[in-house]
Amino acid sequence: MTIADRNELRQPAYGEASGPAWLLAELRDHLWPWAGKGQPARKAVQGGGFAIAIAATVAWMMAALGHLSAGAIIGWWFGWSVFEVFVRMDAKPYVKEGPWWGRLYRRATLMDMLCYVSFKNLLIGAALFIGLKAAGILQV
Amino acid sequence: MKPPLLTRLRRQAATLLAGLTLAGGSLADTYEVKLPPELSSSPRMCDYAPCKDVMPGATSFSERKGQPPYVEAYADAGGQKKLIGYVMLSTDITDIPAYSGKPVVTLIGMDTAGKFSGVKILKHSEPILLLGIPESALIKFNNQYLGKFVGDNIEIGKSRPEENLIGLDAITGATVTVIAQNQVMMLSGGEVAKQVGILKPVVRPQAKFPPVTTAPGWAQLVEDGSVQRLTVKPEEVGLKNDGRPYMDLWFGYLNQPTVGQAILGKDGYDGLMGRLKEGEHAIFIIKTAGMDSFKGSGFVRGGIYDRVQVRQGGDAFTFRDLDYLNLWGVSAAGAPAFDESAIFIIRGKSFSAAFPWKLVFLGNKIDKETAAKTFANFDREYWLADAYLEGGRPKIVKPDPTWLKVWKDKAVDIGIFVTLLLVISIAYASRDKLVRRSSRHNKWPVNAFKYTGWVVSIGFVGFYAMAQPSITQVLTWFHSRLFQWNWELFLSDPLIFIFWIFIIVTVFIWGRGLFCGWMCPFGSLSELLYKLGGAIGLKRFQTHLPQALHDKLKWLKYVIFFGLLAVSFFSMGLAEKLAEVEPFKTTFLVGILNRSWPYSLFAAGLLGISIFVERPFCKYLCPLGAALAMPTTFRWFGLKRKDECTSCKACAKGCGSLAIDVKGNIDQRECMLCLDCMVLYYDDHACPPLAQERKRREKTGQPLTPINGKGYFIPIKPVPMDKKPQGAQA
After folding, report:
1. Where are the domains positioned within chain B?
2. B628 vs B515: CA distance, rounded Å
3. Among A residues 108-127, those touching chain B with beta carbons less than 8 Å apart
4. ipTM score here?
5. pTM, to two decimals
């Protein structure tokens, strides 16, 4: 065990799932920051998060249509990432402890969540950014 | 006839302005300097560049001439103008990028005998030359060319007289920059030397073609490489992408009978061959899409087609109006529609279709911010297939790419370095065995590997190989990944490249501690000083910051990292300057005694404090550490803890990284993986719950069973009395 204090351990709502169902639940957990069944969330943060997520999605679509510059989309993605930290701290305040194939989760500190969201969104953003650039849509 | 007074005054003013801007000689002044746009476009290049600096004795200069362009330099000799050499602007000839990904704009002088007479950097974007390497180093490097013949085999590295190779001393810490600069010098000088007759073209054996047996269609010609495609995207020349390519060209070699007849038809081919003299070759080009003309909109009779040329080895073949023939149609079935076409005649015995050659499209890239045009070329290789050459393709030895040469030159260093990384990784992977062999009083089984890692890292990696990873590399790679990825750029520094693979892999497996705590040259130097300080009697002065203060200060490095990242989006140059918060350049690249006092004081101060406080820079300032700490949150394998760690503070008291919190959890982002806590974990004389159990067993006469992976004695389970062994029953 890499955690001394067992009170720090957390179990997400899908923790009991197994096999492909668990993998799908993990994927959904990474892509959907809002509270799921059995997870608490404040409506204001949830609503605000939805609004900003829609705006960020529109920004990516505009980029895909060639109407948004590289700098603008990076700015949008950064802005959404900051808000996602708050959304997750409210709705899913846990991060994985240990290897990605493991089942151990712990309470997320703000720094844990910052690291998680920034790294995850860096990967997603880079994939989208490079994809759009390779398609010749995004101008740099 | 003299030009009008106003024009002369304007030129003189421009010369003065350019001189003030460019002739200052300081590389700091030439970093990302704004050059006059006329420098790359005006026929009178020397009105905007200090040509006299690279051609001593010259009193006047011609207008730009030739393709690629150069100017002639004249001296007054008895009232008459005498040609004394040539001056060229590197970016008129090549766009080879340096470490920054941008070319170093260089003014080059060459006398009529082909010897370099002067070299001057007009503009560069190399951060290392801005802050790390003193400008005198590049001037000294460039001065090595003076007096050397352009046709000599000049490379970076040691001279090898048996191979007729002249070696130039590199600039330590700027290898990539000087390798690129050498390519620029030799290519630019060579191009002009060939044009003016100093260098004779290479004569290649001519190809022989087998008789025609088939009539391939367009698809087959494309498939076997007899027709090639050269596409230039709009963004590659700084234009907005509207879905069309900037230039989409198809081209091929027509002398080969099968190919030529497929493209032109039998009659067309015979007609063309009838017009060609011995040693002349024909190629065709068609444009199937594009925003511009490949012939050039400004082409005039008697002029040169300045947008396309053919290159073979070091020889370039340009086309004049007399080298052009109309191409009315393409016979091959399935050929695409085109809106522009040409047949060009290559004249010169040095061209041979038996060897590979390239069609080069010469473009101008428009800078979005300044609207300035810079030279950019795009090429595509062509080599007839075996079947189209009698006896097949000849064997040729292609020169190694630059990055491969560097790897070969540093093969020994690379071998040592990879061995070091493997040994350290294997040692750390075996940590469970090492810490079990250690005790609180004897940590040598662990420390032997760790201290060896430190010493080799400081001496070999840091001071000798100068392979200290830096946040500037993270920023450069981040931007490159997003904007322009260039593998060659990253491969050109092999030790750094290998180090980063090691860092990325180990951060995800074990966290940043293996690099930061065991292998970072500066971190190792810092902690080694702390250990040495303790060993020479300064232990009583050594201290840790109070945990509460440490817990606040540790965030500073993250602020620095995010600050640098944010600034880099607006100005990489400024971010590079601010990255001087890392004392790595001062310590390893340039030397503490070789830099100006603020940098030296900063680096020396941090190392001085390191004697009394363990790794102050790593804990509180290092932006690279912060960048690596973030993915460390998700490292796969952390250090072990016991339930008792929540109340027992034994490990926390000895943690030099102050990484164990009040609940006994390890902050993996701050942990340097020194393994001290893991030594205690298995030490039944040091770990309180383990020691307690040991004492209890000793007191009750119970045996001390081995300690299991969870850090406890294997429990003794008494066998029930009524359960006798089977053997006894029998």
Report:
1. 14-195, 218-399, 404-682, 684-724
2. 9
3. 111-112, 114-116, 118-119, 126
4. 0.85
5. 0.77
